[in-house]
From TrEMBL:
It comes from Streptomyces coelicoflavus. Pfam families: GerE (PF00196), Response_reg (PF00072). Residues 4-124 form the Response regulatory domain. The modification 4-aspartylphosphate is found at residue 55. GO terms for molecular function: DNA binding. GO terms for biological process: phosphorelay signal transduction system; regulation of DNA-templated transcription. This is Response regulator transcription factor. Keywords: DNA-binding, Phosphoprotein, Transcription, Transcription regulation. Residues 153-218 form the HTH luxR-type domain.
Length: 225
């Protein structure tokens, strides 16, 4: 199965480099490029990609607003791609808001080429949170700067079983399904089932949103490993 990708970045050389790298993969098809968020949203609506590589900072409509529009489309628009944010460490707040909006993860712009290819495949599969160790560190920083959202988020945790809560905790700490299976002495397929049930019960789109929810609800505290 071929993964359809579009690249949204205001730097032409970045777009060209990423496009060339991804197009060389037999399972990835780059179906378009755009220089800003507004054109990226229009291109996505027209080409229906599986994954959108979205720069955070762009003139006009930035990547955060574009991600919101793609992931919360207006009535009548049914296509919702997975969004992978392109960022650097100096835009952490934007990354956090993008994850809250439903972005599936992020990639540092100076990451090795192999990481970009792997990131697209991971996000396309919806099977794992990208760069869990970095994501955990960033979101822990965000959580330290914001009060825990008591009330509804915490109440929603009560709908989970004890095992599902354990799985969510480990997801929030950046563990992969394989690592969770090893920690809880479960089959990896069983872990996948638990993760799927957690997402369904909490009405979350993917693991990225699950990480944000776990911190905001107070299930996981900043700095915990």
């Amino acid at each position: 199965m071929t993964t359809r990708v579009i690249i949204v970045d205001d730097q032409a050389m970045v777009r060209a480099g990423f496009a060339a790298l991804l197009a060389a993969q037999s399972d990835i098809d780059v179906v378009g490029e755009a220089p800003d968020g507004a054109q990226g949203v229009e291109l996505s609506r027209r080409t229906h990609p599986d994954v959108v590589l979205m720069d955070v900072r762009m003139p006009g409509m930035d990547g955060l607003e574009a991600a919101r529009r793609l992931l919360s489309p207006p009535p009548g628009v049914t296509h919702r791609p997975r969004v992978l944010m392109l960022t650097t460490f100096d835009v952490d707040d934007y990354v956090y808001e993008a994850l809250r909006a439903g972005a599936s993860g992020f990639l540092l712009k100076d990451a090795p080429p192999a990481d970009l290819i792997a990131a697209v495949r991971v996000v396309a599969s919806g099977d794992a949170l990208l760069a869990p160790s970095v994501t955990r560190r960033l979101i822990a920083d965000f959580a330290q700067q914001r009060p825990v959202a008591r009330g509804k988020p915490a109440l929603r945790l009560k709908g989970l079983t004890e095992r599902e809560t354990e799985v969510l905790t480990l997801v929030a700490r950046g563990r992969s399904n394989t690592e969770i299976a090893r920690t809880l002495v479960l089959a990896e397929q069983t872990v996948k089932t638990h993760v799927s049930r957690v997402l369904t019960k909490l009405d979350l789109r993917d693991r990225a949103q699950a990480v944000v929810f776990a911190y905001e609800s107070g299930l996981v505290a900043p700095g915990e490993q």
